[in-house]
Amino acid sequence: MHKQPACQRHGGTFETSPRVAKGEVSLVQPPFNNGEKRAFPDHGTAPAIDYSNLGVPADLPKRTGRGGARNRADRESHALHLGQVANLRDAFDHSAVIGLPFTRMITIHWEAAGVPLAGMAKATGAFIGLMSKTLARYGCATAYVWVHEGGERKGGHCHMLVHVPAELTEVVSKLQRGWLRRITGRAYRKGVILSRPIGGRRGMEVDNPELHAVNLEVAFGYICKAASQTVLDHFDIDRLHEPGGLVIGKRCGTSQNTGAKARNTSEQETASA
After folding, report:
1. Is the Cα dihedral 10, 96, 259, 244 positive or negative?
2. What is the pLDDT of residues 158-181, one digit of tens each?
3. What is the C-alpha to C-alpha distance for residues 124 and 183, in angstroms, rounded to an integer?
4. What whole-number distance in Å separates Cα of residue 94 and Cα of residue 97?
């Protein structure tokens, strides 16, 4: 298994990560009769994952961070590619370096909440913005990575790993349903959001940081499961590939403080110290 830097002890509380098995992110059935494009159309499953580019280079591709056609709002994809997983991996590691290790896994069933597949990226951005502003009001920074997936029964949904300090967990939990109502303009449906702390129990990052790190790796593998098996194996992610479904627009992302620019700045400062 890929070796991750030990998470810094910062006094937060953590609980269990999602099971490795192919459990549903929610028991709620999305309202698929909304007339929008589905992650898996009614007449059959989505196209197979593209395995045409099986060669994995010895060195990871350099990520420019530029936009363009790759990031256009109507771009369709069915899997995470090598560069995306590399960026998520680097951001995942950097969150611990800056003292903001991921403490929660949040899954939002956007299609069940009434958000069409093409609107999922905007909805995720709005949720993250509201959460970040709330934490900032309490003087707390956050860090996160997120991945979008489609699903035959689950519909369009988002998985995110996020840093929420222990003392603000209840604040976020109480507000998040209101954020969803604000974003969707609809009443909250039970099971649309699932938020679970990472680890076996509260305080595990302090009492047993090694076990917490293992749980965190499992959670990271879970959000990357839509990558091809070749890519998963390249990053020593101990997980089998699962279809990621159709996603329209950006498939994954990171917080600015864990992104490529922030990581490069940190490396330069370390080199010049």
Report:
1. negative
2. 999 999 988 899 999 999 999 999
3. 9
4. 5
